What we know:
The protein is built from eight helices and four strands. It has 149 residues and is of the alpha+beta class. Strands 2-3-1-4 form a four-stranded antiparallel sheet. The model has no long low-confidence stretch (mean pLDDT 98). It comes from Panicum virgatum.
Amino acid sequence: VEQSYIMIKPDGVQRGLVGEIISRFEKKGFLLKGLKLFQCSKDLAQEHYKDLKDKPFFPTLIDYITSGPVVCMAWEGDGVVASARKLIGATNPLQAEPGTIRGDLAVQTGRNVVHGSDSPVNGKREIDLWFKEGELCQWESVQTPWLVE
Ligand code: GTP
Ligand code: MG
């Protein structure tokens, strides 16, 4: 089944948006498989964002992501990767549509409160990177028959 790695960035945690952001994914109907508050190392942040390592903003991005605790989440469901990106909104919060997380809750690309995997392959890669074996739960939600026919 498709999984996406969703992460509330340090600004989202500091601004008290954890409940609000988790709630958007919960209400949509995806299944939460893993969840933790976590202070990440520079090495882990650099590995996570390795595709951006040549960008001029890479050092500030790593400082940002390691500046405080983040909330790591694994969400599951058909189409979860693309749908989560839509719920999150455009990278630049000023261009993100109202109704999206970034559109409603943020103003700057460098403080855009949440991360979402950009492909199912990266969803798996990032969940393997951020979660250890045993940190994900295998469970079934009682809502499932009311969400999918
Ligand atoms: P993520 O879900 O966090 O991966 O964001 P994204 O997929 O919408 O954007 P992308 O992967 O291209 O960039 C990753 C993150 O780097 C962004 O979410 C921003 O936090 C940061 N970033 C991207 N572009 C810029 C930029 O031009 N300036 C700054 N300061 N940060 C940037
Ligand atoms: Mg990205």
